[in-house]
């Protein structure tokens, strides 16, 4: 999914009826973490299913998915969101969860940089620059989201990495994705057609 290719093993509600994990007591952090991951995977399952469709993802759909992801994250217990309040045994699970959360938000918003580049490449033969359609406010919002989420991911990975080999390998991949998106998004404010064209010339050349 990180590279925009949907997986084949998506959740089928008609055959999968397993109940979500439920904490047995107030400080059953492991069960709460597993339940949060399951709920997150259900959202990602629908996102991957949408990516598997032929039609291009719309800005409205991307914003709706992003809002759902943010609501999921806001609903997490404090110890799964705030490193200062997290039990040591949850450190790696918490960081994996945050990396995946930010990465999925990045994938949703990164689409619109790629869409813009694709549209611009199709219009290279246009006689006048006015033939290029200016990005919509929602498109601009998603590119801004791409930039801010990429920077948040970079900060989170560099500030809260742990001396765990598997976690470092995982974080390095997400750090690369965030850095690449930040580099692409930060070269444009997407405010005017001229600014957008300058970015796209750099990307396409």
UniProtKB/TrEMBL annotation:
InterPro entries: Fungal_SecMet_Regulators (IPR051127). Keywords: Nucleus, Transcription, Transcription regulation. One of its GO terms (molecular function) is RNA polymerase II cis-regulatory region sequence-specific DNA binding. GO terms for biological process: positive regulation of transcription from RNA polymerase II promoter by galactose. The keyword ATP-binding does not apply. The keyword Transcription regulation applies. GO terms for cellular component: nucleus. This is Fungal specific transcription factor. It comes from Colletotrichum higginsianum (strain IMI 349063) (Crucifer anthracnose fungus).
């Amino acid at each position: 999914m990180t590279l925009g290719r949907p997986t084949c093993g998506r959740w089928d509600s008609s055959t999968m009826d397993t109940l979500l994990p439920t904490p047995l007591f107030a400080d059953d952090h492991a069960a709460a973490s597993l339940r949060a991951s399951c709920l997150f995977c259900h959202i990602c399952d629908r996102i991957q299913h949408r990516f598997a469709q032929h039609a291009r993802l719309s800005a409205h759909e991307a914003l709706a998915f992003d809002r759902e992801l943010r609501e999921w994250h806001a609903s997490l217990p404090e110890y799964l969101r705030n490193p200062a309040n997290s039990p040591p045994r949850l450190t790696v699970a918490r960081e994996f969860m945050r990396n995946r959360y930010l990465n999925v938000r990045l994938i949703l918003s990164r689409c619109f940089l790629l869409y813009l580049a694709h549209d611009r490449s199709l219009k290279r033969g246009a006689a006048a620059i006015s033939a290029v359609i200016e990005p919509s406010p929602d498109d601009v919002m998603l590119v801004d989201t791409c930039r801010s989420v990429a920077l948040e991911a970079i900060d989170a990975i560099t500030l809260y990495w742990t001396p765990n080999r598997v976690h470092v390998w995982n974080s390095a991949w997400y750090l690369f994705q965030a850095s690449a998106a930040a580099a692409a998004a930060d070269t444009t404010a997407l405010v005017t057609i001229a600014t957008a064209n300058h970015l796209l010339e750099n990307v396409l050349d």
